[in-house]
Amino acid sequence: MRPNFILAKAVRFALIGGAATAALSAPAVYAAEQDQDKVERIEVTGSRIKRTDMETATPVTVMSADDMAKQGFNNIQDALQSLTSTTGAMTTQEVHGFTPAATSISLRGAGANRTLTLINGKRLNQYPKPAGGVNNFVDTANLPMEAVARIEVLQSGGSAIYGADAVGGVVNIILKKDYEGAAIKYRHGDTSNGGGESDRIALSLGSSSERGNVSTFIEFTTNEELKATDRENFGLHTDKVPYSPYSAYSSYGARIAAISSTGADVSTVRQLTPAECEAGGFLWTGTLCGFDRSEWRDLAPENRRFISTTTFNYEVSDDVNFVGRLDFAEAKSTTNIEPMAVDAYDITVNGNALTVSAGNLSKTFNDKTTALGGDFANATDGTYYYARRFHEFGNRGSDTKTRNYFFSTGLEGMLADEYSWDMSLNYGRTNVDVTDYGYGTIASVFDYITAGTNGNSLLETMSPADVEAMEYSPFETAQSTQKNVQANISGYAFELPAGDVQFAFGAEYTKQDYSSDSDSESKKGNILTTGGSSGQGERSYWATYAELSVPVIEDLTVNGAIRYDRYSDFGGNVSPQIAVEYRPVSELLVRGSFSSVFRAPDMHRVYGDPTQGFNTVIDFKQCEALGGTPGQPSSDSLTNQVCNELHIDTTGGSNKNLKAETGYTANIGAVWGGDSLNASIDIWEWKLDDMVSSISAAKAAREWQQYDFMITRDASGTITHINATAQNLAYQKVRGIDLTAGYTFDMGSLGDLKLNVNGTYILNSEYQLSPTDPVEDDIDNGGLPQYRANATLGWYINDFETTLGAYHTARMHGVQYKSFKESAAASGADFNESDYEVASQTTWNLTSTYHLSDKITLSAGIVNLFDAGPNFDPTDTGWPHYPRSTYNARGQEWFLEGEFKF
């Protein structure tokens, strides 16, 4: 094998991709440029065959630790979100979700549960609390930043190499090796508009002997909460966002509503006056006693994290090393949202009798004129209910404590100077404990309403003693573990006229288990405005795999791979892959690959108990029946409710008969490299059949004609419950183009300028929910930007360097664009497409670093230089009315950082 110096340089640039950086880490460059007799072979993500440089037939993005620092990223999640191939992210902005303390990314739009995350090629444990109560994923919030040497991102399916989870791609975090010395680094950051202050202190220690090395990296970070009230400049401090025509204050302040179909007439019962409403701690909206929820909400939670990573290696003999890694991370996160909104108690008036009921609880008062403070003294017969915000309970919130443990130990070495081998034993465990506050049980509030001879009115303020008697703190504990043993060997197979054939062969065995358990009241569904998620299960699988790299002619290499996985709970699967590398001239690499991919069903989808939850939807069917307009306010309380914020129960269920998802991924591209100009282009596509999914409550309510079987309605026809069970649906297919280019300007005594640009353009993204459904267009339906592009310009002169980065997201249709378009077509109304789009956005980061000496380095920067806020979605009727997987509300943020090496 001969190093191709010009092409190696080009490939090193082309691999950069999403981070728009200028060079790889030193080991990769060194491997490509040493004397042929001393070439070090390295393993590149996407293949287990060790190579002499970073050239691969599949596209790999590489971000070094230096690259991430130059762009102002404070953690791994920020760096991964910057990738143009990232088309979705779960961030800590998801304050109302099941996992507000965790983060993840989705590559190529495949989903976080279909994006594999590794550290040094080893699988990480799955987060035991599933996203949305259904999807397992790897939490990226507690991964080490200071220990990272580089991150390699395979932007293609990797099932033939790594097995399941690698549909959208692979994130492989490569840690620093053989660190020597000691260093301490401190970073302080704050936002220009308040909230979200952060601190990070990191300690790096390493010691080497003639036979080995031990390196330890310790980080401690704190992040202040970012409240909605901190972002008045973006309009997020209030429910009535000035930029969203469909935003509105909550109608759940304090009022009595009537179920008109029962004969109840809301005009015959007591309502608070504007003065009484304000005095009670609510908000008079002009038509009713409502509430401003945003004043109570976090945009991002307060958190503290401790992360420790230790790596070690010891030379047992000339050809055998003992290696290992020990990780521990502990994090605590506190998330606050608005107080409970309660409507769970029916008040039935029959003559002079009044009955309060909730589920199997019931109590009748004989005199409606004195019961419940006389609120129903003049009520006509029928059923009513209180729509009440329990602000006396304070914020609903969650304290989430996460502990991650990982241990890996093994041997690696060489056989006969030709064969590289390794074997390892790996163990990971994640524990999550969640304690909630600000809640009450259905029974305790029922006891308050019905207490004594006449009960209590929910239009009156509750006393602290009454609140204390009703309070309940739900809790949940969850754990997941993973045990893995694997062995690999790679090296020379045999010789052909065009060169040596290289191979890799290996096997692994993995056992996974998880358990999630809520308190007894949550599992019974007895907690107001929240539900519980529980379940447990285990699975094991074994796999064997092989790769072969065959030089067909001097400039053409064909790579083949195959893997067989056998799961204990759903059977086996074979995943083949073929890839081609062609070099017609030294500056050009033409590459292509095709591989089969598969995805084992998430464990919670198979073994989880029914997940009880609550949601807010628009009841499109009932809204139209009542003569209302979806998303528009109405003077009638029931119409206003069903057309804007109908609170319903939801159930998500598991399905033990789920099958694996199967499909393919394909890529064809070219890389050009010269002394100053480098460029690459890749066209890619992936498709999955039998995708496991469930219909969201909002979608079921919106497209009720198709999903009516999931919906439960009351006697009046209003939705009360939506049931969604996991199932193998039809397919999804996504096709796109990646482009990268870079140029280095040599300015002599003024230093060097390095410009790098890259982008991802989605040509097509389509899906079909079931074989009888029409094929849908994700881009047209809304919520998906068609392209993202990044650019960085770096200036390097002597001991000073500065980097300006630009990150652009294209315009996109709003998340409910399809629904509004169909409604306009049905009514014959005019439809102006631009009125239902989310505007494009470009943010800028500026950082500078000065090396005072070999031991002292100072850095400073501004992230989001021009204080760009989130672009609002005119179709999104739910708070905060912008796509949280794309934008955040941190605004302009500055930081100072110093590093001292001992």
Q: Based on Cα principal axes, name the global outline.
A: elongated
Strand content: over 45%
Q: What is the rounded distance between the termini?
A: 41 Å
Given helix and strand content, the structural type is mainly beta
Number of E-type strands = 50
Give the CATH level 1 class.
Mainly Beta
Tally of discrete structural domains: 1
Helix content: 10-25%
CATH A-level architecture: Beta Barrel
pLDDT averaged residue by residue: 86
Instruction: Please count the helical segments.
Output: 16
* Uncertain residue segments: 1-39
The CATH topology assignment is Maltoporin, Chain A
Biggest sheet record: 22 strands, antiparallel, barrel
Task: Give me the secondary-structure topology.
Blueprint: H1 5-14, H2 26-33, E1 60-64, H3 65-70, H4 76-81, E2 86-90, E3 104-107, E4 115-119, E5 122-123, E6 148-154, H5 159-162, E7 169-175, E8 181-191, E9 198-208, E10 212-223, E11 226-227, E12 254-259, H6 274-279, E13 283-284, E14 289-290, E15 298-300, E16 302-317, E17 320-337, E18 341-342, E19 346-350, E20 353-358, E21 361-365, E22 382-389, E23 396-415, E24 419-437, E25 439-440, H7 442-449, H8 464-470, E26 471-472, E27 475-496, E28 499-518, H9 520-523, E29 535-553, E30 556-567, E31 571-582, E32 588-599, H10 603-607, E33 611-617, H11 620-625, H12 637-644, E34 646-653, E35 661-673, E36 677-689, E37 692-693, H13 697-702, H14 704-707, E38 711-713, E39 719-725, E40 727-728, E41 731-746, E42 752-768, E43 776-777, H15 778-781, E44 787-797, E45 800-809, E46 812-813, H16 817-827, E47 837-838, E48 841-851, E49 856-863, E50 893-901
Parallel strand pairs: 4-7, 34-39
Antiparallel strand pairs: 1-6, 2-3, 4-5, 6-7, 8-9, 8-50, 9-10, 10-16, 11-15, 12-22, 13-14, 16-17, 17-23, 18-22, 19-20, 19-22, 20-21, 23-24, 24-27, 25-26, 27-28, 28-29, 29-30, 30-31, 31-32, 32-35, 33-34, 35-36, 36-41, 37-40, 38-39, 41-42, 42-43, 42-44, 44-45, 45-48, 46-47, 48-49, 49-50
Helix pairs in contact: 1-2
